[in-house]
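Try this one yourself first.
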C-alpha cells in the first residue's frame, strides 16, 4: 500500500484547519519548487522528462468533514455544528477529538425519549459532546467556540485487502500525488493540494486560476454502495473492481475526449476500472473547469464505503489501479489535440 496513506489519514484537517496536513505534505515533496497561496493551497511544479503540449494539473483536497464548536453549556457539554456534509445518522455515539481532549457524541437516551419520537433520527442541533467536564468553567479550560472537532478512529487493515480509516476522502488522492512527486514522471505536471473542498470547492477555485491548466485530473473518493441487499446499478460502484472514471456527476459533465481517452488508456494497460452507475455527488472538478478561460476536467476516484463518516472503507486493489492509471493518463493527455 502507498506509504503515505496511513499517516495522512491519521492527521486531522477539517475544512479551514488544514495546517497539520500542509506541514506533513511540505515535509515530503523533496526539493521540488512549490508555493502556498493566500488560502493555504500547496502548488507543486514537478519536472518530467518532457514538456507537454497541454499544461496538466492534478488536484486532490487536503480537508476532511468534521465539526466546529459553537458553544458550551452550563453543565460543561459541548455544542457543535457540522463542517461539510455529515449525515446525522453516522455521528451519534462516535468518539471525537477537540484539540487534546477526547469526547463522545451524545443525545438524550432512548429510554428517556418521548414515545412518539423514539423512531426519529436525532438532529445535530440536539446532540452534544461529553468531554468529561464537570461544568462550563472546567470545559472552557480545554475547549473554545471555533475549535475544530474531528472523528477519532484508528487506521486498520482487515479482511482481504480492505482498509478502514477516517478521511480516505481525500487523503488517498493526496498520497497518490506525493508518491508521484517523489518519483519520476514523463511530462512536467503541476500538483495542487487544495483546501476547503468539503464546504464549497473553495481552494480548487483559487488554485485553478493560479495554475490555469489546459487539462485537470481530479483525484477523489466516491461513494460505493456495494453493501448488503443492494443490487445492480444501485451499487453505484464497487470495492476491488478498479479505479472509478466518471462521465458525469451532480456538478460536472466530464470532458468527453478525456473520458474516452481515459477508458482507452485503462484498457490498453490492463488496468481495472469502472464508472459510476448513478449521477450523484460532486467534487473540485466543478470549480476547476470554469476557472479563468476554462479547463477540460476528468475525475478518477477511489470507491469508498461509508464516505463522510468515522470509518470509510476502501480496498488496496483499487488504490493500486489508480496509482497505475494516473501516470498513464498524464502521458495520454500531454499531447492530445484539444
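Now uncover the answer:
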Amino acid at each position: 500500500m502507498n506509504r503515505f496513506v496511513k499517516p495522512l489519514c491519521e492527521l486531522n484537517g477539517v475544512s479551514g484547519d488544514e495546517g497539520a496536513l500542509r506541514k506533513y505534505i511540505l515535509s515530503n515533496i523533496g526539493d521540488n519548487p512549490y508555493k502556498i497561496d493566500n488560502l493555504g493551497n500547496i502548488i507543486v511544479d514537478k519536472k518530467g522528462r518532457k514538456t507537454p503540449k497541454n499544461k496538466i494539473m492534478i488536484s486532490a483536497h487536503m480537508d476532511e468533514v468534521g465539526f466546529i464548536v459553537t458553544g458550551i453549556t452550563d453543565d460543561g457539554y459541548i455544542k457543535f455544528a457540522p463542517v461539510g456534509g455529515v449525515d446525522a445518522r453516522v455521528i451519534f455515539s462516535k468518539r471525537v477529538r477537540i484539540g487534546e481532549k477526547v469526547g463522545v457524541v451524545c443525545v438524550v437516551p432512548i429510554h428517556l425519549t418521548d414515545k412518539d419520537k423514539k423512531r426519529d433520527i436525532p438532529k445535530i442541533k440536539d446532540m452534544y459532546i461529553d468531554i468529561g467536564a464537570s461544568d462550563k468553567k472546567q470545559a472552557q479550560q480545554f475547549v473554545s467556540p471555533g475549535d475544530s472537532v474531528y472523528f477519532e478512529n484508528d487506521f486498520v487493515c482487515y479482511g482481504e485487502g480492505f482498509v478502514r480509516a477516517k478521511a480516505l476522502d481525500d487523503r488517498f488522492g493526496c498520497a497518490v500525488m506525493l508518491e508521484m512527486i517523489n518519483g519520476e514522471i514523463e511530462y512536467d505536471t503541476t500538483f495542487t493540494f487544495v483546501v476547503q473542498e468539503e464546504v464549497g470547492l473553495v481552494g480548487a477555485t483559487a488554485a485553478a486560476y493560479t495554475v490555469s491548466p489546459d487539462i485537470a485530473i481530479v483525484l477523489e473518493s466516491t461513494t460505493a454502495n456495494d453493501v448488503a441487499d443492494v443490487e445492480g446499478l444501485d451499487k453505484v460502484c464497487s470495492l476491488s473492481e478498479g479505479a472509478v472514471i466518471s462521465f458525469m456527476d451532480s456538478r460536472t459533465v466530464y470532458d468527453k475526449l478525456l473520458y474516452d481517452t481515459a477508458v482507452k488508456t485503462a484498457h490498453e494497460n490492463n488496468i481495472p476500472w469502472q464508472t459510476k452507475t448513478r449521477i450523484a455527488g460532486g467534487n473540485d472538478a466543478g470549480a476547476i473547469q470554469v476557472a479563468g478561460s476554462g479547463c477540460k476536467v476528468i475525475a478518477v476516484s477511489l470507491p469508498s464505503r461509508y464516505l463522510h463518516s468515522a470509518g470509510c472503507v476502501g480496498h488496496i486493489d483499487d488504490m493500486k489501479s489508480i496509482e497505475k492509471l494516473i501516470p498513464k493518463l498524464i502521458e495520454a493527455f500531454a499531447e492530445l489535440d484539444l
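Discussion: The chain is about 25% helix and 25% strand. The chain has two domains: 5-64+166-334, 76-151.
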